């Protein structure tokens, strides 16, 4: 019966306004059934879902959004990672001190409706009109001792995407227009079918030019490059663990000329295997990703120079 109910445009806009007003005090609409229903309704009137557009990599049911915080249901290893991060007596305390500046702020744990959550900084806060992209890092997205079926599944996914060739892939993105409305949203297999090693630079450019921007903001580009260089330095000189299936989350809101970038997803973090000094899988992925942003910066600089020459001529 519910599936047959299709509200009109006025109802849709009124509901959206109510959600905006109640967001600071209303935890979330996280029910998978409700999200599926909302998606079908908004698709029926030719719109994209704002609720489904919150998390770029497609894990809506795992999160609650509360103003400055995001509550996430963690897997046990990720919970242990964050507890270790907050432990001043940890054997990783030295490297954790620097890592804390490169990831969303960890604010503790909370129980809500019988579920245990970790409380993290909401990277979207203040960038509500921003476009979001999730870069999954590593050619290898499994441990050597993972189950054979998982290894086979991850290898298949790496070969379908850009992971096996570039060392990273776009696992999801949300593009928004000048008004902050979602203009395109692709997740997982949908991304793999249209993003490849030949056009991924164009997709990265689209994210940099989101919100209908007419030019790439050079300060944002420099900020992204600086962050990736700092993260690479940490992995090459401080880190002593193996990070599998971690992601870089990048949010760009050209309407306010701001961005945020952070390393995410720590459900698969272990000590480095015997005989290995560094997490080369993640380091190579980061260098590959950095290469694309540096190339874009070079092209932008050359274009700016040529345009200045034409103007002077």
Outline: globular
> What is the gyration radius calculated from CA atoms?
21 Å
The percent range for strand residues is 15-25%
From the helix content, strand content and strand pairing, which structural class follows? Answer: alpha+beta
Give the uncertain stretches in residue-range form: 25-55
Distance between the termini: 69 Å
The beta-strand count equals 11
Structural notes for this entry:
The protein contains ten helices and eleven strands. The strands form three sheets. A five-stranded antiparallel β-sheet has the order 7-6-5-9-10. A hairpin with a 2-residue loop joins β1 and β2. α9 packs antiparallel against α10. About 10% of the residues have low confidence.
Main attributes of the structure:
41% helix, alpha+beta, 313 residues, globular, single chain, four-stranded antiparallel β-sheet, 10 helices
Could you outline the blueprint of secondary structure elements for this entry?
Layout: H1 9-22, H2 32-44, E1 63-66, E2 69-72, H3 76-85, H4 93-99, E3 106-112, E4 115-121, E5 131-137, H5 148-160, H6 163-166, E6 168-176, E7 182-187, H7 189-194, H8 200-208, H9 218-237, E8 241-243, E9 247-253, E10 258-264, E11 269-271, H10 280-312
Antiparallel strand pairs: 1-2, 2-4, 3-4, 5-6, 5-9, 6-7, 8-11, 9-10
Helix pairs in contact: 9-10
